[in-house]
Specification:
With 485 residues, the chain is α+β, with helices and mostly antiparallel strands. The strands form six sheets. It has an eleven-stranded mixed sheet, with helices on both faces. A five-stranded mixed sheet has the order 16-15-17-18-19, with helices on both faces. It is globular, with a radius of gyration of 25 Å. The two termini are 36 Å apart. 43% of the residues are buried. It binds one RNA strand of 77 nucleotides through helix 1, helix 4, strand 11, helix 10 and helix 11.
RNA sequence: CGGGGUGUAGCGCAGUUGGCUAGCGCGCAGCGUUCGGGACGCUGAGGUCGGAGGUUCAAGUCCUCUCACCCCGACCA
């Protein structure tokens, strides 16, 4: 190992922030763009996003929703209609003031989210209780002028889906909010991205601007910090009242509808990187991996290349027929280089095939998730069957490992001093569970003193009663405290 | 937006108290030898030194402004 080798290496994982940026750049997921805070998502990163989209979209549709599309621009007057909403978003809205060289009579916001323009439209679409519920979703981009950006985690422009529904009753809206939270988001994030999440309700301070209740899914990153992986909002009648979304009910009365909205974004890619990545780079969860099995042919002489090529072709076809996403690496690099390169890019399984293997009618399968790498010989006609099994094992293993890590970094605190100590230990950050009285003052004080925020109030509660971590008054709920991205 | 730091080839860096044609490693192109865990040799290509202005006989180097990025904060449904 020479000094030069380090040039290609990643930053040490202890320098988590630099490591994160290195992985994104070297795995060719994304790169900086000429526009501040915006990134260029490269083909490999976009392929991951497309897999995420497809899988999440299937779940959204399976729960009875349809997709539609609304404009990128929102008239300023729309944004003004919901007081809390404007207040919350005003600082981060980008405006279009000129069109075709002429100053616009009304400024257009580049959507930071679409509740307003959709609410305005829903008011026309809803007349009767028979028109409800409206269960729609859109995939698109939004812009939020953030002060400090990070690739995938917080970019000025990002890609996401935003669902918008309208219902006849509060109960129905709440059921929708929870269905998306648990049946769609949690199911997707845990089963496809292999990221365990804590599902719970946001505090008033962290609530979506204009919502009655906000729920979130919180994941622990590799440095112990929290990442909000998705949110689901019960908007109550707030937007319905601002936009006159009314219907005539069975009893003949005209009533305001109950609406919800929910979203998940490219931020989840940041989560995948920070949860599963290791010293060797990225680790793609098999179910969303752009490439699930990379085939590395090995040869020296030209005649060897020919037999290996023939075998590779057959193995590739076999894997593809089994529904596995593959790539054959014919680059003129040494095998060792390719191994490291694909490990950096996070491909879960590698298939090596060389002259020796061809002769023995076998191939070598190597798992990315094992250290040291687990290699096994497989008969050529068994490759696809074995790969399928291994991919499932890797998928489970990534989830289990992430869950174990989260558990090892989660602790309970009875006193504020304990929380302070945990948050001061930079190298060993994590989640802290503690009783909280529900008072925003305690929450704010804790944040000011420790930088820890309440990520959410988990739906799964221990029950019983305790003393508030901060003020020691009686508390019936416990909250997850953590530093967050 | 506040405090600190960094901008020299795609990446990582070196460039003395201002001085001649701006260097090194990796990467890249061509040729040859290699090839089962990051190969090697030879020959090349690639730079308005982040940008603008200024001081000077002379600026990568000094001054002013500005932009971007990184770290720590504030902010962040």
């Amino acid at each position: 190992m020479t000094e030069d080798r380090y040039v290609e290496d990643l930053a040490d994982k202890d320098d988590f922030s630099q490591w994160y940026l290195d992985v994104i750049r070297k795995a060719q997921l994304a790169e900086d763009s000429p526009v501040r805070g915006c990134m260029i998502i490269r083909p490999y990163g976009y392929a991951l996003w497309e897999n995420i989209q497809r899988s999440l979209d299937d779940r959204i549709k399976a729960t009875g929703h349809q997709n539609f599309y609304f404009p990128l621009f929102i008239p300023e007057s729309f944004l003004q209609r919901e007081a809390k909403h404007v207040e919350g978003f005003a600082p981060e809205v980008a405006w279009v003031t000129y069109g075709g060289g002429e100053e616009l009579t009304e400024r257009l916001a580049i959507r930071p989210t679409s509740e307003t323009i959709i609410g305005h439209t829903y008011a026309r679409w809803v007349q009767s209780y028979r028109d409800l519920p409206l269960l729609y979703n859109q995939w698109g981009n939004v812009v939020r002028w953030e002060k400090r950006t990070r690739p995938f985690l917080r970019t000025s422009e990002f890609l996401w889906q935003e669902g918008h529904t309208a219902h006849r009753t509060d109960e129905e809206a709440e059921a929708e909010t929870m269905k998306i939270l648990v049946d769609v988001y949690q199911d997707f994030i845990e089963n496809e991205l292999a990221i365990p999440v804590i599902v719970g309700q946001k505090t008033e301070a962290e609530r979506f601007a204009g919502a009655a209740r906000t729920y979130s899914l919180e994941a622990m990153m590799g440095d112990g910090k929290a990442l909000q992986a998705g949110t689901s909002h019960n908007l109550g009648q707030n937007f319905a009242k601002s936009f006159e979304i009314m219907f005539q009910d069975v009893d003949g009365q005209r009533k305001y509808a109950w609406t919800t909205s929910w979203g998940a974004s490219t931020r989840m890619i940041g989560g995948v990187i920070m949860v599963h990545g290791d010293d060797a780079g990225l680790q793609m969860p098999p179910r969303v991996a752009p490439i699930q099995v990379v085939i590395v042919p090995i040869w020296r002489k030209e005649h060897e290349r020919e037999v290996v090529a023939a075998a590779s072709l057959l193995l590739d076809a076999q894997l593809r027929h089994a529904g596995i996403r593959t790539h054959v690496d014919w680059r003129e690099e040494t095998p060792g280089f390719k191994y490291n390169d694909w490990e950096l890019r996070g491909v879960p399984l590698r298939l090596e095939i060389g002259p020796r293997d061809v002769q023995n009618n076998q191939a070598v399968l190597v798992r990315r998730d094992m250290k040291p790498r687990a290699k096994e010989m497989v008969a050529q006609d068994q490759v696809a069957a074995r790969a399928k099994v291994l991919l499932e094992e890797i998928q489970r293993n990534l989830f289990t490992r992430a869950l174990e890590f989260r558990q090892s970094r989660t602790s309970r605190a009875e006193t504020f001093a304990e929380l302070e100590a945990r948050m001061a230990d930079r190298a060993n950050l994590g989640f802290v569970e503690a009783w909280w009285c529900g008072d925003a003052t305690c929450e704010a004080q804790i944040k000011a003193k420790t930088q820890a925020t309440i990520r959410n109030i988990p739906l799964a509660q221990p029950g019983g009663e305790g003393a508030c971590l901060y003020c020691e008054r009686p508390a019936t709920k416990w909250a997850i405290f953590a530093k967050a991205y």
